[in-house]
Amino acid sequence: MDYSLQGYILSSGRCPCPDTDGDGEENRVDNGTPAGPGDDTCSSCTGTLPHLTLGISSGKDVWHNPEKYGVYEDLVKTTSSDFCDILGSIISFYG
After folding, report:
1. Residues paired with residue 69 on neighbouring β-strands, in sequence order
2. How far is CA 28 from CA 15, 41, 77, 78, 89, in A?
3. Helical spans, DSSP H, in the chain
4. 50-87: pLDDT as tens digits
5. By C-alpha distance, which of 41, 52, 44, 43 is closest to 1?
6. What pLDDT shows up at residue 78?
7. Each residue's pLDDT tens digit, 24-38
8. Number of CB atoms found within 10 A of residue 15's CB
9. What is the CA radius of gyration of the chain?
10. Using the 8-state DSSP alphabet, how is residue 59 labeled?
């Protein structure tokens, strides 16, 4: 799961939104600009791991419980060029 999430972030330059309806796909709200994630939001910042969006067969742990997943909205709206800067500022804030 960790490697799939890292690969998604590396290829898209942003974090996926959580799955909030149980279908395995991220629940992203486009807000009108399909080509630009800068105005995207998530239907919720917490939910379960969007395993189908990440290309893995299951979003469950070894005990068959759904894997919880949450994301900062700034990391959903970012582009690959500023992802590290935004992540760094979040880490510094919680230092």
Report:
1. 47
2. 11, 6, 10, 13, 23
3. 2-12, 51-54, 74-77, 83-94
4. 999 999 999 898 999 999 998 887 777 766 567 777 77
5. 52
6. 63
7. 999 988 776 666 666
8. 24
9. 13
10. -
